[in-house]
Amino acid sequence: MATRLNVKYYNSFWLKKTIYVGHLDETDPNNRGGLGSAFPGLPWTPDQGSAGFPVFPSGAGDSENSVYDEVENWFIEESRYQGGYNNVSTDYGAKAYLKEDNNAQEYRPNALIYSGVYNSRTGLNDTNVFSVGEAITKSADPHKGSIQKLYAEDTNLIIFQEDKVNRALIDKDQIYTSEGGTQTLPQGTVIGQIIPYRGEFGISKSPESFAVYGFRKYFADKDRGSILRLSHDGMTEISEYGMSNFFRDQLKNISELQQPIDIKKTSNGDKSSPSNPPVFPDPKYIELQTSPNLDIETGSMLIVNGLEYSIYVTATEANNVYLTTHFPGEINDGDEVIFRSFKKDKIQGAWDIYDRNYIVSIQQESQEDYHTLSFDEGVLGWPTFYSYRPGEMFSLKNTFFTTKSGEIYQHYFEGSSNNRNVFYGAPPAKSSITFVFNPQPNVNKNFLTLGYEGSNGWQGESFISDIRGLQEVPSNYVNPNINLPSYVNYNDSSVIVNSYYEGAYDSAGNEYPAALTEPIYRAGFKLKEGKYVANLKSNSQVRAGEVVFGPDSYGGYPTSGIKGFIATVKLSTDSSTDPGGQKQIFAVSSNQVQSSN
């Protein structure tokens, strides 16, 4: 530390220690070294690495002609301005290294803190200034959990906690009190009073579910099994529009903890020297032959026969994954290859600006299970389930994008007429529509036919009645993996109704898509006056008390239709009629008669 000495004339002096580095070259008299900085009270360590203060070599002195390496010197400065009696005393000034009296770390997940302002016009930048002398913190209710999401809307700041949604006025000098009056805040108030929205809902720990369009905000409350919309009229539980049970069952399975996820495969033709390798900074790379393409992320662990290595994904193609790794050897055929990453279940949300829908994807990483569906404000319902599993989703300039394995995909792309239901390079997925037939609910009926108005390419995937009763499980039925009760419920169901093309065959037994000769028969939908119709063939067993069915000459199935009060029918696109092309459907119908038993 510095030392204060009282001398005559009532002046005092600071003693400051410095290090004089002399010339190291004896043949160069002009190399006289210089002064090195040394702060009072701090140890000095020379560049050579030895600890402590310099040691005077023998013969070292203060003379310019002396030969030395380092010499410890002292300088004296006056502490009074101009050396006058009782003049202003100088000191070190502001000491930026002084610490707080209470320097313990605080974890306040329910509080907000803001810094100084940034003004690009004047060059003022106080974004790194957090003055302890000012009230720059604002706390929400700690019982409602941590703050997960902030959204600024005009002059309001919407605060999403785990169990509550609040709003705070920002950049306003006047707020409304609970009595209905107004209260003037001090000039420069940044965050005003925190006011909760009505309803005990929050965003849980799923801020990724948040999406906004116009004045509507959408988000998921996993802890309450709800999907919500925040608008001018407050919060609305949109999961109640016909999907309350679905979201209740799916959201409760979402875990908020990261879990190890393993992708296993047996090496079959993998190489470490592809013929046309991409260019990497690290020359060690591996080409993995995969089908379908593995969802491998950078930062995963590569485990080959029990040994772990870090990897970096560099490129992906339809059936190849290129990656760099520190794996020292080769991957041989038959080796067990595991890619391990740590992931968290998520409820991914976004606004589809092209189709004007809120898209939510509920993804369980450990089960590799997901459900991607949309909410339509026009019908106030959830009309569509999608077959893709996105990484991220966002809209930009009237276009909807998602990401998969680090790549961006544009949806609703009209560049090709056969790209419908094609996601991330996979083969076209099937579209399906499910209906419920419920005419005369109190009458037991036989559903005899199935028909639809639309384009070719639709098949009747299933036609199932309501629960018809209990069926005893046969005593000789043994399955160690399933514990069945003594009785199970059963339904009546039909065989699949083939589409117009896939149900075509000729007298020689040839089937579509082979070349058929006239006459052509249809084992499925037939086209009559612009409408596709088919008879329903029951796939149910004859049970006690029922009329015995007559045999069917085509396949052995009876043709008496499906018995029940109501029926659920599912139509889906087939696999061979214009894959990826447009399929339209306008109406679905069924003829039925009153059942005689």
Structure explained in plain terms:
The chain is mainly β and 597 residues long. It has four domains: 4-83, no CATH class; 108-197, no CATH class; 258-344, Thrombin, subunit H (Beta Barrel), CATH 2.40.10; 433-594, no CATH class. 1% of the residues lie in helices and 40% in strands. The chain contains one helix and 44 strands. The protein has a six-stranded antiparallel sheet, with no helix packed on it. The protein starts with a strand and ends with a strand.
SSE blueprint:
Layout: E1 4-6, E2 12-21, E3 34-36, E4 70-78, E5 111-113, E6 118-119, E7 124-125, E8 137-139, E9 147-153, E10 156-161, E11 165-170, E12 174-176, E13 182-184, E14 191-196, E15 211-213, E16 216-221, E17 226-231, E18 234-237, H1 244-251, E19 258-266, E20 285-289, E21 301-304, E22 307-316, E23 320-325, E24 336-344, E25 346-352, E26 357-364, E27 369-376, E28 381-386, E29 393-396, E30 399-404, E31 407-410, E32 432-437, E33 445-447, E34 449-454, E35 458-472, E36 487-493, E37 504-506, E38 520-522, E39 526-528, E40 531-535, E41 562-564, E42 567-573, E43 585-589, E44 592-594
Antiparallel strand pairs: 1-2, 2-3, 2-4, 5-8, 6-7, 9-10, 10-11, 11-14, 12-13, 15-16, 16-17, 17-18, 19-24, 20-23, 21-22, 21-24, 22-23, 25-26, 26-27, 27-28, 29-30, 30-31, 32-42, 33-41, 33-44, 34-40, 34-43, 35-36, 35-42, 37-38, 39-40
Question: What's a concise summary of this model?
Answer:
By secondary structure, the chain is mainly beta. It has one helix and 44 strands.
